[in-house]
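To: structure desk
From: M.T.
Subject: fold request, one chain
Message: Could you run this one when you get a chance? Sequence is below, nothing fancy, just the single chain.
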Amino acid sequence: MTREDRSEELFRSGFNCAQSVVGVFCDDFGIDLDTAMKLTECFGGGFGRMRLVCGAVSAMGIVSGMALSRGAGEGNTRAAVYGKVHELTDRFKENNGTIICAELLGLDKNTKYEAKPEARTEAYYKKRPCIQCIRECVRLAEEGLKEYLPEG
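Reply: Done. Structure tokens follow.
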């Protein structure tokens, strides 16, 4: 199964957009899935369902850090991480016109949204582009970080 397919499977099983992207890269970087899911839960729905930056796009940044950051005390890798974030985000924006969750969903970005997530039904999946965005972010991360990922 491809990472894109696994990310869709994670999303359909109840994980949010950010979790569904980061989750498929955990094994590649020795990150345990449970910890990653806890750390990325707040990014869903455009950061806590505030409909700001798409959680899948934020997750590309997290994966960039997983690949490029040396961590605390290991030298400054921010320029490399930030550069990769710009590259991947620019590609997503080029394809979709925005990185803002509300705009991707066709919602008013000035509306204050409830923190409570919607029930996951077939209608939920049909009315939003989230699966497409998740799959695209996984693909962009794979392409942009291929030298840091195992083959296959």
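Reply (cont.): The longest helix spans residues 78-96. Let me know if you need anything else for the meeting.
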